[in-house]
Specification:
Protein name: VIT1/CCC1 transporter family protein
Low-confidence stretches: none
Order of helices and strands: HHHH
Mean pLDDT: 92
Distance between the termini: 33 Å
Number of helices: 4
InterPro entries: Ccc1_fam
Number of domains: 1
Organism: Roseovarius rhodophyticola
Keywords: Membrane, Transmembrane, Transmembrane helix
Structural class: mainly alpha
Transmembrane segments: 48-73
Length: 75
Protein backbone atom coordinates (compact mmCIF):
# COMPACT_ATOMS: atom_id res chain seq x y z
CA UNK A 1 0.00 0.00 0.00
CA UNK A 2 2.81 2.41 0.86
CA UNK A 3 4.49 1.69 -2.50
CA UNK A 4 1.24 2.56 -4.28
CA UNK A 5 0.76 5.80 -2.32
CA UNK A 6 4.39 6.93 -2.72
CA UNK A 7 4.35 5.94 -6.39
CA UNK A 8 1.34 8.14 -7.06
CA UNK A 9 3.02 11.31 -5.77
CA UNK A 10 5.00 12.00 -8.98
CA UNK A 11 1.85 11.45 -11.04
CA UNK A 12 -0.40 13.92 -9.21
CA UNK A 13 0.77 17.06 -11.07
CA UNK A 14 0.06 15.34 -14.40
CA UNK A 15 -3.32 14.00 -13.28
CA UNK A 16 -4.32 17.43 -12.01
CA UNK A 17 -3.19 19.11 -15.24
CA UNK A 18 -0.60 21.50 -13.80
CA UNK A 19 1.07 23.73 -16.35
CA UNK A 20 4.64 22.84 -15.30
CA UNK A 21 3.79 19.32 -14.18
CA UNK A 22 7.26 17.84 -14.75
CA UNK A 23 9.08 20.38 -12.57
CA UNK A 24 6.43 20.15 -9.86
CA UNK A 25 6.62 16.36 -9.98
CA UNK A 26 10.39 16.41 -9.49
CA UNK A 27 10.11 18.70 -6.46
CA UNK A 28 7.29 16.67 -4.93
CA UNK A 29 9.24 13.45 -5.45
CA UNK A 30 12.39 14.81 -3.83
CA UNK A 31 10.39 16.20 -0.91
CA UNK A 32 8.79 12.78 -0.47
CA UNK A 33 12.19 11.06 -0.47
CA UNK A 34 13.39 13.60 2.11
CA UNK A 35 10.35 12.94 4.30
CA UNK A 36 10.76 9.16 4.00
CA UNK A 37 14.40 9.56 5.07
CA UNK A 38 13.37 11.61 8.09
CA UNK A 39 10.86 8.94 9.08
CA UNK A 40 13.48 6.24 8.50
CA UNK A 41 15.71 7.89 11.10
CA UNK A 42 13.28 6.69 13.79
CA UNK A 43 14.58 3.15 13.18
CA UNK A 44 18.20 3.88 12.29
CA UNK A 45 21.16 5.28 14.20
CA UNK A 46 21.55 8.24 11.82
CA UNK A 47 20.27 11.72 12.65
CA UNK A 48 17.12 12.72 10.74
CA UNK A 49 18.88 15.20 8.45
CA UNK A 50 21.57 12.70 7.37
CA UNK A 51 19.02 9.95 6.79
CA UNK A 52 16.89 12.42 4.77
CA UNK A 53 19.78 13.49 2.56
CA UNK A 54 20.88 9.88 2.01
CA UNK A 55 17.38 8.75 1.04
CA UNK A 56 16.87 11.76 -1.24
CA UNK A 57 20.18 11.10 -3.03
CA UNK A 58 19.52 7.39 -3.49
CA UNK A 59 15.89 7.87 -4.48
CA UNK A 60 16.70 10.81 -6.75
CA UNK A 61 19.43 8.80 -8.47
CA UNK A 62 17.06 5.87 -9.00
CA UNK A 63 14.38 8.21 -10.37
CA UNK A 64 16.87 9.88 -12.74
CA UNK A 65 18.08 6.49 -13.96
CA UNK A 66 14.50 5.32 -14.54
CA UNK A 67 13.73 8.54 -16.42
CA UNK A 68 16.87 8.08 -18.54
CA UNK A 69 15.97 4.51 -19.45
CA UNK A 70 12.44 5.59 -20.29
CA UNK A 71 13.79 8.38 -22.49
CA UNK A 72 15.86 5.83 -24.44
CA UNK A 73 12.72 3.87 -25.29
CA UNK A 74 10.87 7.02 -26.29
CA UNK A 75 13.29 7.80 -29.12
Amino acid sequence: MSFLVAGMIPLFPFLLGFERAFEFSVWMTMATFFLIGALKSNWSLSPWWLSSIETALIGGSAAALAYGVGALFHM
